[in-house]
Each structure stands twice: as structure tokens, then as C-alpha cells.
Amino acid sequence: PGPPARAMPVSPEAVEAEERANIEEYCRKHNVDGLVHELVEGLLRDRPETKPKEHFAHLLRMQLMRENTAGATEMEMCEASKASEVPGRLLINLFEATKRIISEIVPKETINIIIQETIKLLHAERVSLFVYDKRIDMLVHNSSNLKQPIRVKPGQGIAGHVFKTREIVNILDCYLDDRFDQTFDKTTGYRTNNLLTMPIVDFEDECMGVLQAINKKGTTHFSHVDEILLENLCQHISIALRNAEVYRAAIVTSERAGALLNMIQSLTQDLGVQSMILTITMHANELVQADRCTVFLVDEKKQQLWSVSTDSGKDIRIPKSAGIAGECATEGELIAIPDAYADPRFNQEVDRRTGYRTHSILAIPVMRRAGSAGSKTLAVIQMINKMEFDGAVGKFDDEDIQVMETFGTFVASKLQDSLLLNGSSKQNESEAGLVFASETGVGLRASVKNYDASHRGQAIQESMEEGNEEEGG
Q1: Does the chain have fewer CB atoms within 10 Å around its N or its C terminus?
Q2: Which of 26-40, 204-218, 241-255 has the lowest mean pLDDT?
Q3: Hey, how many other C-beta atoms are within 10 angstroms of the C-beta on 20?
Q4: pTM for the whole thing?
């Protein structure tokens, strides 16, 4: 056989033509022209704040999802669209932020880490966290620029509005929005240009508070992607806040149990009246975290309430019907006042004279055993200003009342069995006089002076002034 025929050389033009034909066939088969046209049209229509490539990726993901999940509901597609709009790098940042937030359980630290992680995630200058406190019906405002939390009423300002309506508020220019209060900016000199405010709703559909980001860095406003990020972050924040709330309740319960145990151990000892007053005062403060506490004993013979001044050891007496403590003793009923200045029974003149501000009051009657002679009310334990964990003044809640009622029932038998209260003392001497006449009384007086003299002494002084004014009237 002869030599094989040599292949004819293929020209570059022919190769190029064949490749072009293959590409055209591929484009027709997969409708590439239509796809490119759809992507470009979507980009020009949406004009997103993300990069074009990121938006193209989003559009392609949504198109595939529509093709592969024909039975998906409109809500499912909406949620998927939100997630798809966020670039992958920001999703990673969101994941890292949520990990750090839900890893904390101590209330104060949880609040701090929420604020710091939100600042980093959204590139905001400042972040404010408003946590709703059911006990006081207020939003507790924590911020990256505040040393101490402040209270905001639900419905007050933009944060209060978002809490009430659960709307997402994204203000591009705060000074052009009527809802924005410029007072803070004028006071501090800070300029709030834009803000994004989001409700924090938990798995039980209960609004737990509001998260607010202020002044987006590097641009003029918070974007739609920022809204998606913050909305997803708030879902995890609600879990973190709920965990912190459970932890705080457990700590309070543990501390109260410890205080009750210490109180029982202290009152099982053979104590004199003055020492017993001091012991009751100390443990009552621990049980409900009150700023001040006064124990008044009822002197039926003289129709007076008496106690002991911690700074001088003197016998303090006021009319039995004077002030809040007097009403509690006379009626034998518990009195809880969340706002003293809103209650007509409270004498504000006392605060004006002393410089102390009374917010909340809890007066507990200590009742005699059934069948005992004399007045039903043996004593009154008056608590002033409930102190919250953040140092602010709150109001005494139902748990405080329940604990103090139990406390009052326990100490009643101890007080009634006291030598000075069951009538075995000399009739011509006062109860406090007998205590201070004894040698042990001198030592007890010295120990009382060392216990928070300014706090309890002023509380007694307030009650004295209320009684003096009532007598003068």
C-alpha cells in the first residue's frame, strides 16, 4: 500500500468559525442571551447598594430557587430572598457576632457584648439597646456612650414608637424627620445624621426591647442589607436576653434564699428589742434590695410608733396615725407605692428638707398572733426605694411583696415573744428606755451606729417630720 494521505491543514479562520458556531449553539441551547439580558435588566431596575457581581449572584440564586422549589410559599420565598441579598462575607460576620452574643449569660455583660457586636457588624458610630422591664413598665436604655442606663417610657421617641408598633424604622436624615428628638444632640453637641431602629421580638412573639444603630460609617445611611443583618441579629439577641433574664432571676432567688436562711439563723438567738430591730432592718434590705428600711414598733398605750435612731441611739416616736407607716399600722394592711410623688398620702416636704428623693415605698404590717390582746398590728417594716441591678431606682414588685409578707409573718412571733413587747416590763419606763438602761444596751447601741447610720437614720427622720407636721396641723 502507498503512504497515508496527509491531513489538510486547518486554517485559523476555520477554527475560529467552528468555535463561534459552538458558542452560538451553546447560547441558544441555554438561553444565555436571555439570562444576561435578565440580569442586566434586574440590576438596572433594582439599582442595589451592593456590588453588581453580588447582586448578579443574588438574582441567579433566586432564579434557581424558583425553579427548584415550585411549591414554596410567598413568605418562604421572601425570607430566602432576604438571606440571598446579603453577601457571603457579611453572613460570616453575622454568624460570628451571633456566636459571641449567645455565649454570654450575665445580664450586664450580655448587654455590653450586644452593643459592641452590633457596632462592628453594621459599622455604626453608636448603638443603643432598649430592654423592656415589665416590673417598672419602662424601656431601660443602654448605649455605647452612656455610663449609666436611663429609663424611657414605651411610646416615647423613635425607640418607644418602634417598641409599640414593632415597625422597622430606617431614617436617612434625622433632622428631616418629625419623629426625631433633637434635644440630646443640642445638649451634647453630637450630630445624629441617620439611624436604623429594629424591634427585638422573641419566639413567643413578645417584644423584649429595641436595638438602634446610629450614624453609618463610610456612607450616608443604613442600607437594605443592614436592615436584613440587624433583623436576623435581633432574633438571636432575643434568645440572649431571655437567657440573661432567667439567669438573673435564678441569682435573685438564690440570694433571697440565702438572706432568708441568714435571717432565720439570726432571729433564733435570744435578742433584745434593739438588736432585733437592727437584725430585721439588715435582712429586710437584703431580701428586696431596698435603699432604706425602718422598723416601727406600735406602742398602744401612748398611741405612737417608736423606733431607734441609728446615729444617736435615741428613742424616736411619732403619732400612730402619721404618714404611710401610720396608715399601715392603723389599717393593718400592706401599702405598696410605685411612685411616691404621685400618691397624695406622701409628704414631699420631707424630701425637700432632707435632699433625699423617695421614689417607691413598701410598708408591711407585722401582725400579732390570733387571740392576742391589744392592737392587731405589732410593728411596721417600711422599705424605701427599690434598687435595681443597674443601680437605678425601681418599684417593689409582687415577688418583693410576697417575700416581705413571709418575712413579716416569721418575725412577728419573735417580736411578740420579746420581754419588752409582751407587757412584762415596768409600766413607767418606755421600751427603748429599758433597752438603753441595760449594760448590753450600751454595747448594742454602739453596734447599731456602725450599721448604715446615714441611710436608716434619715429614713426615721423623714417619718418623724411627717408625724410632727400632722400633729401641728
Answers
A1: N
A2: 26-40
A3: 10
A4: 0.60
